Amino acid sequence: MRLNFFVSFVFFGLISLQLPPLSTQQATESCSSTLPLNDLTFDSTLLQCVEAWTPQNYILRYAKTVDNTWSFILSAPDSSAYIGIGFSTNGQMTGASAVVGWIPTDGRGQAKQYLLGGKSPGEVKPDQGDLNIVNGSLKIESVSSRLYMSFQLTAELPRQILLYAMGPAGFIPASPGFSLREHRDMTTTTINYNTGSQSVVKGSPHSKLRKTHGLMNMFGWGILIIIGALVARHMKQWQPTWFYAHIALQTTGFLLGLTGIICGLVLENRTDANNVSKHKGLGITIFVMGILQVLALLARPDKDSKYRKYWNWYHHNVGRVMIILAISNIFYGIHLADAGSSWNGGYGFVVAVLASAAIGLEVIKFRNK
Description:
Helix content: 40-55%
Mean pLDDT: 87
Low-confidence stretches: 1-26
Order of helices and strands: HEEEEEEEEEEEEHHHHH
Strand content: 15-25%
CATH class of the largest domain: Mainly Alpha
Number of domains: 2
CATH architecture of the largest domain: Up-down Bundle
Largest sheet: 7 strands, antiparallel
Shape: elongated
């Protein structure tokens, strides 16, 4: 019963990491709304308008107001958080430059350019980036519970892949570092500046395959195999249920892990990745050890055999090494994918729970000797 509760807790905890955050609908606006700004340095009647991010009611107004100068106004509900718009060359956050603004408690808006050097907060650098922002054009203000961030760029044609982000509620960047926390929600769109049409980018062509590769390996090698090992070590008082549970968990984990490895090989082939040799080598090593564990089961001696103790030593220790390598390779894969702190934190939490359970069960076993 305790084992079932533990497995359910881990499973639903992981699922909750994938759920999108709830958003509040407030101070709605549309492209037909009158722009409530009076002190603009450019002619607002020239602005084209697009409903940039409908679920969060982000509205983007823009125009080429003079030669090689583009004017932008991004508006969004004021949820006591930062808002941001990034300009990307390839649809990815890493390498893009963004304009981010917020309203501090003193009411005087602040906005800065940021270089999105990676997906962790420490890699997002304020006052850096390659956008040529016209001096004195960048500002943000709050009007009728909405934020209006305006700026001008010097460019023949701004990048057409735009990233929109909403910061965590209640967090406002502060001096001296003006560092950002990970966004609460984001989306990516492409825009045609001439026609005003846009489309939502669902992700990179391989984002779903990359995510499947990570999740299959995480659930297979990094969770189910570990739980199966705990069952084999600590649940033997329930004969023969523990054995069938152990086999079911290890077989399911092996098949999920095999699926993850296949996805990884396909992903490597499609993306021509050149920095995954160590990750791939560890993955193949783990897979071979998994096959050896399956073969060992088929060659298991009887309990009364003089070779059984050697078999037990081999089976248990190969399993332990495989688990350590799997956990290490999962974290290494998260690093290579630049997946951000949510993946590291989510899987780190699960590993901590599993480690705590293992230690607790070892203590109980020692006391019952």
